[in-house]
Amino acid sequence: MRYQTKKMIDQTRNKLWLFTVVLTLFSSSVLAGCSDNDSPADNGKVAEIQERGTLLVGTTGDYRPLSFCEADGTYWGFGIEMAKEIANGLGVKTAFVKTSWPTLTADVLAEPQMFDLAIGGITITDTRRETMLMSEGYLANGKTILCRAAESDKYRSLADLDKPEVRVMVNPGGLNEKFANENLTHATIIVHQKNEEIPTLVAEGEADVMITEITEAPYYVQADKRLAAPLLNEPFTHGEIGVLMQQGQDDLLRMVNSTIQRMKRDGSLRRLHEKYGLVYAY
What we know:
Layout (H helix, E strand, L loop, with lengths): L1 H32 L11 H8 L1 E6 L2 E2 L3 E3 L5 E2 L1 H13 L2 E6 L5 H6 L7 E2 L7 H6 E3 L4 E3 L1 E6 L9 H4 L5 E4 L4 H9 L4 E4 L6 H6 L5 E5 L3 H7 L3 E2 L10 E3 L2 E3 L3 H17 L1 H8 L7
Parallel strand pairs: 1-5, 1-6, 10-11, 10-12
Antiparallel strand pairs: 2-3, 3-4, 7-15, 8-14, 9-12, 9-13
């Protein structure tokens, strides 16, 4: 009886030892599969950017005061500062990559990627969200007009604009052109390639009205006394501007939204609005 009991104890010990060996080997295999190079947490977009040391930012560089590129290649503006805040949160530098309104969607979706995210006057829309990711809003916007100050009393509604004799100038490929084509079917629409040149062309009489945003209009009114924005406080549309990026970059989206939320809480977003003379709606 004692012999049988001892034999049973030895068998149990052997089984426990074998189980421990198998468990140890399995655990080692799992840990090896989740090494620094292969861990899901380390394979995200944020880790890729941090390893590179630079956040690649797509921006049009033609949209004062949100994103503008000077002749020497220097970028400045509200959106440019937002991009640098995001980069600071990642602990990396920023590098700006030129895109355009007509090619913006294609550039965001390009493979291999041209940049990590796009910023600077990009309106949040359901259409964009169908194929791309967009952050929460950090700047309120809406469609309005620029015209010559001497004629500001002439334009008080869409009906005042929608006449054959009214020459409406827009930049190509963006929501300004889309808005004009959909709402001004009788006006004379002029498409001009360089958005930043349109205010001066209106002031000089090459066009009567520019379709623009409430984010852009105040800058040009202040910069050129020949211009006015009579419907600045009564925009035709209401929306928000956000950060645009490829689908599948959810970790980067969370980080961008966290930066925006932090800036709203600590007052830095309001101060940035005030710096550029923009309406704060948060």
